[in-house]
Design goal:
single chain; 505 residues; six-stranded parallel sheet; 15 strands
Length: 505
């Protein structure tokens, strides 16, 4: 299909006019919030029009050197998807300057290119500037256990929010290289702080970008106020900061007792480390087998379940081609839902019985387990030593992360609704297979980047699987092997330190 470029007439269409009106309104609003004072700061939005793919939609941007509180739609630039200016605002009389597109344009375009964003905001809000000055050498801003974290895409209350910080430059365009590196190094982030300057924030729509911008500014302000109170915003309990002499200190914002991030952290697997393997084999998997038919029947028309079924269709087709034991063909939808579900159930049971793991099965299992935890039919089972170990590490300032092939949502349920109550308060973050396979070294390298541990040996990984231990060690992590009753046998002379309880750490 030929690509149709927008005509001059299209530049005056309702889609474009509405986008220019929106940008001018947001600029006035952001001025009132203190984000775009002194003509600084900017905003850019894609012109939403289903006639064009997201990657080829036009872009509207605020101008540079203009009083943002006096913006009108005619002041807004219109650019092509690749950054070519298509429509320039008209000249205005003295003392107003000739129209000039925002100096942020190259950085906005880089975000659109790398993240396929729908809108990008550049704020000079005071809190976004000050929060980068508290730790002058820090490469990241980190905060956890704050309600407004839930407003940031892909994060929950118990998660650790990590925002990369890049160094300022004399000219905006000189930030492109460091911004690009930060976005690449922190794939989960939707913001990049610029030290002594401000912040870039983006979302898949202007609503998402604006909502997240409000949450980020709230969190930056909260961190500054917590610091003034002598409290550590980066830990789950926001405990009192200790200075270098170990004395408690609170009060004014003094950099001489700046919070120092924990030098070590712990990455734990689940099966055979915090929870017995029997929790999976004797409780979770039988629960899926017992509930899968009911789940599919009751949620069949839901989009989530339809997505699960589509993945299962692909998986079953592959299994049939390879002659997998127990795999049965799926009948066409025209034969009726009952027969389709019956065949899906048979295939799921065969996959579980044969221990054939797949993304399709894992996704469906997670949705069934979610129901089980939410209905209190399931309770997470952890070893007796786990609560004490987590509490002790937490009190000493060690951050603890979980890494499992089980989805992050189910990990959070497991520790949030465990046989010892809510243990999520001791855990700073969760990683699942979306970060990579546990047998691959790159996954651990990416976790180190996400967590912000500069020295790999400062992260201790505990597993019961030798191949995972080897992969983590190759990434530079310290590694220990968990020996629990029922764990899989290990090769002799593997060379890793072994523990029988987390209290040995």
């Amino acid at each position: 299909m030929a690509i149709v470029e927008p005509s001059q007439g299209y530049l005056e269409s309702k889609h474009v006019k509405d986008a220019r009106i929106l940008v001018s309104e947001l600029c006035r609003h952001f001025y009132a919030l203190g984000w775009v004072l002194g003509t600084g700061g900017s905003i850019s939005i894609k012109v939403h029009d289903d006639s064009f793919s997201s990657s080829r939609q036009l872009i509207v941007m605020s101008p540079s050197g203009v009083q943002k509180e006096r913006m009108v739609p005619e002041d807004i630039f219109v650019l092509s998807h690749d950054g070519l200016i298509l429509l320039t605002p008209p000249l205005k009389p003295y003392p107003l300057f000739p129209p000039k597109c925002t100096d942020c344009a190259p950085l906005f375009m880089k975000v659109y290119e790398m993240r396929n964003a729908g809108a990008v905001i550049h704020s000079h809000g005071m809190e976004s500037c000050l929060v980068t000055m508290i730790h002058p050498s820090s490469k990241t801003f980190r905060i956890t256990h704050m309600e407004m974290i839930k407003g940031i895409q892909g994060h929950g209350y118990h998660d650790e929010l990590v925002v990369p910080i890049i160094e300022n430059a004399a000219h905006e365009r000189e930030l492109i290289e460091s911004l690009t590196e930060a976005i690449s190094s922190y794939p989960k982030t939707t913001a990049v702080l610029v030290r002594n300057h401000g912040v870039y924030i983006w979302g898949d729509s202007w609503i998402s970008a604006k909502t997240q911008a409000e949450c980020y500014h709230y969190l930056f302000d909260a961190a500054i106020k917590l610091h003034q109170l002598g409290l550590d915003w980066s830990t789950p309990n926001h405990g009192v900061i200790r200075n270098v002499n170990g004395d408690l200190k609170a009060g004014s914002l003094n950099l001489d007792y700046a919070i120092k991030p924990a030098k070590r952290c712990i990455l734990l697997g689940i099966e055979g480390i915090t929870s017995p393997l029997s929790f999976l084999t004797d409780i979770l998997l039988p629960y899926v087998i017992g509930k899968v038919e009911m789940h599919l029947v009751s949620t069949y028309d839901n989009q989530e379940t339809q997505d699960d079924i589509a993945l299962l269709h692909t998986q079953i087709k592959e299994e049939l081609e390879h002659g997998a034991v127990g795999a049965v063909p799926l009948p066409p939808d025209c034969v009726g839902i009952d027969m389709v579900i019956a065949s899906l159930v048979a295939n799921v049971e065969a996959m579980i019985s044969a221990e054939r793991e797949s993304a399709a099965l894992k996704q469906l299992q997670a949705h069934i387990w979610r129901y089980g935890f939410q209905s209190n039919e399931l309770v997470g089972i952890v070893y007796d030593d786990v609560p004490e170990a987590l509490e002790r590490w937490h009190a000493s300032g060690l951050k603890v992360y979980i890494y499992s092939s089980t989805s992050r949502e189910i990990q959070q349920f497991l520790f949030g609704r465990s046989n010892f109550g809510n243990l999520r308060k001791y855990i700073s973050g969760f990683f699942d297979s979306s970060v990579g396979n546990k047998n691959e070294t790159k996954a651990y390298i990416d976790i180190l980047k996400t967590v912000g541990v500069e020295k790999a040996a400062d992260m201790l990984f505990v597993t019961d699987v030798l191949s995972e231990a080897v992969a983590a060690k190759s990434a530079g992590l310290e590694v220990m092997i968990s020996i629990r009753p029922g764990n899989r046998p290990l090769l002799k002379d593997h060379g890793f330190h072994m523990i029988h309880s987390l209290l040995e750490i």
